[in-house]
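seq/struct pair 1
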Amino acid sequence: MAKHVTISPLHAGKRERAREIVHELEAHLGLKSRPVDEGHRFELEGERHDASDLSGALDAVAPDWRDHVSMGL
């Protein structure tokens, strides 16, 4: 199982929307991320969430997320 998930903007022009999506996701999940070079990382080790939770939550908070960010394990 993945230990972390990174949410990254698709390109520089998408950074602001990517930050908004991350903040919406944090609020929805009650889980904080930390900034990394490529975006924001959600640490999943020891948490009650897994990578599939983040995908479903992204669909709920930002149905257009695939136009703005990528999600990587």
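seq/struct pair 2
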Amino acid sequence: MIALAAAFKNHWHAVERDLFTLNFTADDIGTKLSAAQLISIVLAAPPGTAVHHFNPQSWSRTDELIANLGEQQAGLVNLNARYERPQVDSTPVKPKTEFDSLPPYKGIVLESAPADEFTLKLKERQRIAREEAEQ
């Protein structure tokens, strides 16, 4: 119902145009045209209808591909998040640092970490090294 109300509020003329195409008017809502039928006309608008054209949730295949190419070109490294679009998680990604591109040093993968996290990992590695030396 919220989506139906939003379509009425934001795109009333598109809804009215589609009703005219189906030989209905706004006066037919609630009489000749049931609420269920109106919901079907507005929320399941097929391509070629005025409401479908104004639906902000639908992206064309071209729009999807251009967004994907832009993300690929950027490597998602310098972007805060993916482009917002339906059915895609656009939560911000962790920005890469200069350490992420370095090769492993003597078999140790270099990674950036906050000081407290680094200290915990360092103490754990030192404990493991002492245990191996005792054996």
